[in-house]
Write a structure and sequence with these properties.
alpha/beta, 2 domains, 173 residues, Rossmann fold, 9 helices, 434 Repressor (Amino-terminal Domain), four-stranded parallel β-sheet
């Protein structure tokens, strides 16, 4: 079955794509009756916004990359809490094993190449943490673990993900 596009919704509603887009994004320039009609049509057609198109327009991916040491027993709780936090903020959570970062020649370049709005890296070495904080391109929170550091709690990691999801994290300093 073909994915329902914005153009399909606009055609069914008898409006232009720009009007349909503004109505679906909640823009107040579209009258309430027109907006309600377009929203009803979009829902009845099963329309889902194209995240790729949105990210090209906004420069935001609504994705948080969470790198955690998957071999640790506490990680399940962290992933669950972070997924709930990210989802509540309209974000998806990309989960990868932080252990793989150590083997990379340029972990910072790899992390910055991800289609994500922010990174939360737990269990990174000082080498990886230093590389990430030297030239940050997107909001990056690095939480070290090891013999010299206390393991961050699930709450601390969850707060880090919440911070990345917030609009404040993406405003220039």
């Amino acid at each position: 079955m073909k994915r329902v596009s914005l153009a399909d919704v606009a055609r069914a509603a008898g409006v232009g794509k720009a009007t349909a887009s503004r109505a679906l994004s909640g823009n107040e320039e579209v009258g309430m009756a027109t907006r309600a009609r377009i929203l009803d049509i979009a829902e009845s057609m099963g329309y889902q916004p194209n995240r790729t198109a949105q990210s090209l327009r906004t420069g935001r991916f609504n994705v948080v990359a969470l790198f955690v040491p998957l071999s640790e027993p506490w990680v399940g709780e962290v992933i669950r809490d972070c997924a709930i936090t990210a989802s509540a903020a309209g974000h998806q959570l990309l989960i990868q094993d932080s252990a793989g970062l150590e083997a990379m020649t340029s972990p910072a370049a790899y992390l910055r190449s991800l289609a994500a709005d922010g990174l939360c890296v737990v269990g990174a070495s000082h080498r990886v943490a230093d590389a990430l904080t030297t030239t940050p391109v997107i909001p990056t929170l690095t939480l070290l673990t090891g013999d010299d550091e206390a393991t961050p709690t699930a709450q601390v990691i969850d707060q880090a993900v919440a911070r990345i999801c917030s609009d404040d994290a993406h405003r220039p300093a």
